[in-house]
User: Fold this.
Amino acid sequence: MAAGFLALSFESIVLPYNDEATPLSLMNKKMLPIFEFAEGDLSNESLDIIKRLDVNDLLQNNKSSEEELDSLLAKIGSDLHSLCMPYWMFTPEFNSESREYFQTKKEVKRGPFKKLIQDKEIYLLGLEKTLLEVETKLTPFYKGDKLTITDIMLASHLWGMYIFPEFQFSTKMHSYLQEVKKQTSFEYHEDFWN
Assistant:
């Protein structure tokens, strides 16, 4: 999203979720994305990558409160991840081996996916409450009239809810996400469609 907003071209190499060897060999840690700025100059911290790419600070990276953003994303993520993980594993980036790996890893932290599905109403209520709070701060972007790094972080989390079959964003939230999509030239799973 950030690269799209900044009109920077890049090559995306999609790794299977169960590929531990590649990130470990490059960064000594299983964490994505990994961005190569130049040969041997690698980073796997999303916000650091964006700050380096955004040399003119068009996304106002230095003006956002990381503490507030982290708190908001943790609140959203708690419910959203519990709702979507059982569905995400059937998206194009997974094959049967990586799907099994993903489910095994994530169930350690969140519990059995079957239980997450059974408890969906709890997570839906929590997420809807948080989204109502977020909506009050959309003017039309999060706390402002221009797209910032906060909008990219927020939208990148929320976008995953489009996969959940029993959920619809409000008109205001859907319009917000579509405007972020437009301004960032974002296409979900574009890597698999080209």
